[in-house]
């Protein structure tokens, strides 16, 4: 057996785990590890400009590829800077391992230089965290970290590594464990057969059914099964913001996404349904609106890998705990075998009603002859990229417009911070995607508020040649904050207006990128075409859009799902 | 409703803080908490008493189960069970009070475990209500100090919580 130092064992473990990229930033407590990294070339390290961005990069990578991301930082500020990124991944159940240096174990608790109790600090926002107590534990700890991060309901795992665990001249026998066993961690591998049978019987008897799919379908790689089942049943389907792409948006059975800024028809269908088949979704407050008014006539089948997600906010009539792909597969075979079929007459009447709702609103906005509407930018981008780009976003109005008007037919292509709502997520996430998808178009749709939260990463893009396209919907305000202030605070725009914006064009150029400004509506298409033609350049596109636009539909606060504002003046 | 949840936990550093953190993080109540290693040195047994609606209790047990270090748990209040709490009380005991306190201690089947010329230290075990009852009976004016262990519990009959 080979003898390796703790630092070398760590890097070897990453190699043996099949890790291609790690994103990070060096510092004192991580220097032994960085030295081990230097002496090999299998695992590639991407040096970011701020640790938060390293985590979002790993996150973007994980969302686009379905594989766990990896981060390496030092102790103290290096570690605490990752927290927002970790919390972002935690809320959206993204698999990730964050390796943090720590002061030497002999110094822990003495308020040593760059010491932070990272296990304590990260605890509420991780799936699990582990600390290394002896160098020879490193391979097992790393194996465990990836196993926990990527199985069951995925999530971030932090590994705290005191510096003396990686001392170069202390060597130990290295062997990477093939398997880990944790007696207290056994995620379900299939759903309960009786419950699945019961669910299928309910599906067959439903008169006004709807399928409500969430991010769990994408994480569980079950889009194929979901699409097959939905088409076989002929039911309408809606998905959450996190579930975008799990079912083709261009398909006629698709209603768009639901919830606070969901489509009129999706929210109407949910409210009036008699059966909801919820798959890998968690009935969060941005979906349900007031829980006591939620879908009064509906019975609920809820499939989720995490039992704690079931009946947390809305009670399920038929809970099914299991991986969505396995459960859907079983459902599919039961539906195929079943002598019963959904009531065709009832379903036809239901679809007739749905088409009326669609015709009543659909997705619409008012255009203007001279002002660029943010929605039309997104529609144009969707057209010019054939709906096939990877789109990351930041948080705010631009995020909602992007989700509403870019039509995703494939999973893993819409990448946003849905749960935590982290501004500053978009650019580093786009970088993580571009690194592994160099041939694909990667758009970061952002606003002038969000982009400034991680704009230093333009430098990382230069270093690693990451030609993402930054689409800055510049309305010179924190648009979503301003919208809420317009609607709820009599337009008192407290701190939602940004003075002294930088010249984004010069800023991009100073990092060696290209900057393009679009102010006139007639330039929109031609300039966007030029931008997209610059395949090997990062282009920062600063687009001046309508400063007064609001995102609609918008659910009325504390109402039911069907209570919505459809424009500044129409309320249903 | 008040519940007693008994948990087998990996006996590892940080495991307890995860349990306690969960309760504050998700706004659940902890009324009492006891924890000690078991005969299997890799495991600790933790007993927590909490209150909440059925829905909240269901979430508490599910969220506890999600913690990687939680091996097994049971809500003891779902079935017949025995609950015990230990209390040590220092009471002012002078003159005629001494005999009166002694009688009350006997009625509650407690023991006087330490004596000075002016103080009795009383040990009492039982369910939480019984301990409350004792304090009420002797009157709070004479109570100098109270220490309670928090509730421990075990199911009645043949049911066991083990691996």
From TrEMBL, chain A:
UniProt KW Chloroplast keyword: no
Ranges where the Thiamine pyrophosphate enzyme N-terminal TPP-binding domain occurs: 5-117
Named cofactor requirement(s): thiamine diphosphate; Mg(2+)
The protein's Enzyme Commission number: 2.2.1.6
Broad enzyme group: transferase
Pathway(s) it belongs to: Amino-acid biosynthesis; L-isoleucine biosynthesis; L-isoleucine from 2-oxobutanoate: step 1/4; Amino-acid biosynthesis; L-valine biosynthesis; L-valine from pyruvate: step 1/4
Top-rank taxon: Bacteria
UniProt name for this protein: Acetolactate synthase
Reaction(s) catalysed (UniProt annotation): 2 pyruvate + H(+) = (2S)-2-acetolactate + CO2
Annotated cofactor note: Binds 1 thiamine pyrophosphate per subunit.
Protease keyword on record: no
Stored InterPro entries: Acetolactate_synth_lsu, AHAS_TPP, DHS-like_NAD/FAD-binding_dom, THDP-binding, Thiamin_PyroP_enz_cen_dom, Thiamin_PyroP_enz_TPP-bd_dom, TPP_enz, TPP_enzyme_TPP-bd
Segments forming domain Thiamine pyrophosphate enzyme TPP-binding: 394-543
Lineage: Bacteria, Pseudomonadati, Pseudomonadota, Gammaproteobacteria, Pseudomonadales
Entry similarity comment: Belongs to the TPP enzyme family.
Keywords recorded for this protein, A-Z: Amino-acid biosynthesis, Branched-chain amino acid biosynthesis, Magnesium, Metal-binding, Thiamine pyrophosphate, Transferase
Limits of the Thiamine pyrophosphate enzyme central domain: 196-330
From TrEMBL, chain B:
Organism field: Marinobacter fuscus
Pathway note: Amino-acid biosynthesis; L-valine biosynthesis; L-valine from pyruvate: step 1/4; Amino-acid biosynthesis; L-isoleucine biosynthesis; L-isoleucine from 2-oxobutanoate: step 1/4
GO biological process: isoleucine biosynthetic process; L-valine biosynthetic process
Gene3D superfamilies (UniProt xref): 3.30.70.260, ACT-like. Chain A, domain 2
Catalytic activity: 2 pyruvate + H(+) = (2S)-2-acetolactate + CO2
Function in brief: Catalyzes the conversion of 2 pyruvate molecules into acetolactate in the first common step of the biosynthetic pathway of the branched-amino acids such as leucine, isoleucine, and valine.
Domain ACT, chain residue ranges per copy: 4-78
Record's protein name: Acetolactate synthase small subunit
Entry keywords, A to Z: Amino-acid biosynthesis, Branched-chain amino acid biosynthesis, Transferase
């Amino acid at each position: 057996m080979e003898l390796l130092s703790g630092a070398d064992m760590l890097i070897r473990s990453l190699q043996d785990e099949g890790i291609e990229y790690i994103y990070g930033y060096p510092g004192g407590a991580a220097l032994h590890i960085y030295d081990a990294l230097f002496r090999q070339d299998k695992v590639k390290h991407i040096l970011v400009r701020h640790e938060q961005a390293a985590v979002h990069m790993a996150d973007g990578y994980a969302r686009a590829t379905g594989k766990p991301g990896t981060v390496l930082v030092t102790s103290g500020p290096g570690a605490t800077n990752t927290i927002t990124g970790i919390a972002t991944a935690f809320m959206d159940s993204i698999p990730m391992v964050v390796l943090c240096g720590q002061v030497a174990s002999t110094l822990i608790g003495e308020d040593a230089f760059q010491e932070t109790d990272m296990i304590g600090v990260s605890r509420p926002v991780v799936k699990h965290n582990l600390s290394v107590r002896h160098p020879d534990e490193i391979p097992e700890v790393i194996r465990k970290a990836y196993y926990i991060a990527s199985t069951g309901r995925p999530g971030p795992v932090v590994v705290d590594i005191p510096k003396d665990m990686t001392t170069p001249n202390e060597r130990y026998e290295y062997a990477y464990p093939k398997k880990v066993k944790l007696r207290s961690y056994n995620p379900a591998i299939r759903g309960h057969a009786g419950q699945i049978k019961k669910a299928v019987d309910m599906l067959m008897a439903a008169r006004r059914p709807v399928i409500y799919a969430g991010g769990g379908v994408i994480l569980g790689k079950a889009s194929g099964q979901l699409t097959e089942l939905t088409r076989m049943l002929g039911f309408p389907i809606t998905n959450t913001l996190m579930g975008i792409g799990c079912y083709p948006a261009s398909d006629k059975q698709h209603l768009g996404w639901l919830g606070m800024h969901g489509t009129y028809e999706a929210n109407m269908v949910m409210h009036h349904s008699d059966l909801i088949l919820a798959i890998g979704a968690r009935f969060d407050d941005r979906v349900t609106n007031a829980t006591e008014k939620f879908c009064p006539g509906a019975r609920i089948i809820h499939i989720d890998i995490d039992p704690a997600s079931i009946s947390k906010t809305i009670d399920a009539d038929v809970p099914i705990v299991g991986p969505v792909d396995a459960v859907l597969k079983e459902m599919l075979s039961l539906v195929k075998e079943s002598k019963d079929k959904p009531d065709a007459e009832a379903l036809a009447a239901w679809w007739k009603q749905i088409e009326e709702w669609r015709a009543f609103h659909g997705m619409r906005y008012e255009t203007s002859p001279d002002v660029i509407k943010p929605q039309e930018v997104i529609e144009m981008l969707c057209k010019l990229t054939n709906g096939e780009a990877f789109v990351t976003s930041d948080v705010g109005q631009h995020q909602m417009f992007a989700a509403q008007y870019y039509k995703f037919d494939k999973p893993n292509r819409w990448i946003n911070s849905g749960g935590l709502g982290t501004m500053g997520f978009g650019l580093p996430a786009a970088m993580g995607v571009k690194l592994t998808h160099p041939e694909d178009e990667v758009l970061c749709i952002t606003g002038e508020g969000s982009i400034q939260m991680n704009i230093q990463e333009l430098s990382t893009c230069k270093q690693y040649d990451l030609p993402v396209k930054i689409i800055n919907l510049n309305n010179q305000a924190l648009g979503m904050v301003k919208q809420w202030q317009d609607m709820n605070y009599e337009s008192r725009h407290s701190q939602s207006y940004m003075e002294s914006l930088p010249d984004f064009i010069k800023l991009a150029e100073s990092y060696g990128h290209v900057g393009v400004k679009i102010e006139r509506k007639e330039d929109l298409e031609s300039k966007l075409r030029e931008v997209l033609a610059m395949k090997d350049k990062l282009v920062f596109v600063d687009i001046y859009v309508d400063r007064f636009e609001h995102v609609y539909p918008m659910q009325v606060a504390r109402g039911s799902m069907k209570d919505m504002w459809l424009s500044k003046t129409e309320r249903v | 409703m008040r519940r007693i949840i008994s948990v087998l936990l990996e006996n590892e550093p940080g495991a307890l803080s995860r349990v306690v953190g969960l309760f504050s993080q998700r706004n659940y109540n902890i009324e009492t908490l006891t924890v000690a290693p078991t005969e299997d040195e890799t495991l600790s047994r933790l007993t927590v008493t909490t209150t909440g609606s059925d829905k909240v209790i269901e979430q508490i047990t599910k969220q506890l189960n999600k913690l990687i270090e939680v091996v097994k748990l049971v809500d003891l209040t779902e079935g017949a069970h025995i609950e015990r709490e230990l209390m040590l009380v220092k009471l002012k005991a002078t003159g005629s009070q001494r005999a009166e306190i002694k009688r009350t201690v006997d009625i509650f089947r407690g023991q006087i475990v330490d004596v000075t010329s002016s103080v009795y230290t009383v040990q009492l075990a039982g369910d939480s209500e019984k301990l409350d009852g004792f304090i009420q009976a002797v009157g709070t004016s004479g109570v100098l100090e109270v220490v309670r262990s928090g509730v421990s519990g075990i199911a009645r009959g043949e049911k066991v919580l083990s691996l």
